[in-house]
Amino acid sequence: MATESPSTAERVGFVGLGIMGSRMAANLARAGYELTVFNRTRATAEAWVAEHGGAVADTPADVGAASDIVISMVVDGDQVRSVLLGPGGVADGAAPGALCIDMSTIGPDQTRAIAADLHARGLRLIDAPVSGSSPKAQDGTLTIMAGGEQRDVARAEPLLRVMGELVVHVGELGQGEVVKLINNAVGAANATAVGEALLVAQAAGVDLDALVSVLGASSGGSAQLALKADPMRRHDYTTLFKLEHMLKDVDLCLQAGQAAGVAFPSAAHARDVLVAALTRGHGDDDYAALIEALEGLTGTRLES
């Protein structure tokens, strides 16, 4: 589908300018969209507008009033409900027919419940969570999995293609969240396996540079190996994706699996490791910090 020219595009609002949202919104601004933005910390929104243009709204309702399409990128389902449907939320200002694109990662049941309440007020919703941490948000190469009616996804697609390299309509409303949660659970399980492999190899006297080189060129290779092996070895937990957010996503995936009657043992193990790292004070760190919990279990520490 050809992308729409910003000069003829619908008015766009953006709620949530955190690590991911600020970068995603910046790509829209660079593509020519003049955004109306809201962030819980107003100074963050003002700094973003000073750099990228657009307007700062006092409330999400003001974003809704100024926009035909509103994108939300916040932490959890409670925040999504608050910014869209709470007092002063987007729904209080948006005109009938406005489209909400929630790009947060929340439970699919939460998405469907929020959609039902928005529909009752004449508003539309798709879920479009993303995969790829802040570097991919920065350069507009996220993977975006969209759930919702075809007409709504088609309406959102020009914006999604500015923010993402791969945009997939995965199914009905809520299925974007299901796919995202499964993806993150697989990623957490893989990152846990990478950490365990590094510890086993070190204990066995293997050169870790050699191990990583061989794994990367063999069946043991993965995105998690490429992204997290070096930070784990250096104990560099500069935040690309918070450990507490990964734990939230894995928990939601396990809940979805339980509702479907299917176990996900590797994800359950990853959750236990993430919980252990969280209790060690690494919730705000990158999830590479899960290595701290694995080191605690083995009583050893990785060498860089």
* Low-pLDDT ranges: none
Name the quaternary structure.
single chain
Radius of gyration, in angstroms, nearest whole number = 20 Å
CATH superfamily of the largest domain: NAD(P)-binding Rossmann-like Domain
Descriptive account of the structure:
The protein has 304 residues and is an alpha/beta fold. It folds into 2 domains: 6-172, NAD(P)-binding Rossmann-like Domain (Rossmann fold, 3-Layer(aba) Sandwich); 179-298, N-(1-d-carboxylethyl)-l-norvaline Dehydrogenase, domain 2 (Orthogonal Bundle). It has 14 helices and 9 strands. It has helices at residues 21-30, 42-52, 60-66, 77-85, 90-93, 108-120, 134-139, 150-163, 175-203, 208-216, 223-234, 243-260, 265-279, 290-298, and strands at residues 12-15, 36-38, 55-56, 69-72, 99-102, 124-127, 130-131, 142-147, 164-171. The strands form 2 sheets. A 6-stranded parallel beta sheet has the order 3-2-1-4-5-6, with helices on both faces. A 3-stranded mixed beta sheet has the order 7-8-9. The model has no long low-confidence stretch (mean pLDDT 96).
Question: What does the secondary structure layout of this molecule look like, with pairings?
Answer:
Blueprint: E1 12-15, H1 21-30, E2 36-38, H2 42-52, E3 55-56, H3 60-66, E4 69-72, H4 77-85, H5 90-93, E5 99-102, H6 108-120, E6 124-127, E7 130-131, H7 134-139, E8 142-147, H8 150-163, E9 164-171, H9 175-203, H10 208-216, H11 223-234, H12 243-260, H13 265-279, H14 290-298
Parallel strand pairs: 1-2, 1-4, 2-3, 4-5, 5-6, 8-9
Antiparallel strand pairs: 7-8
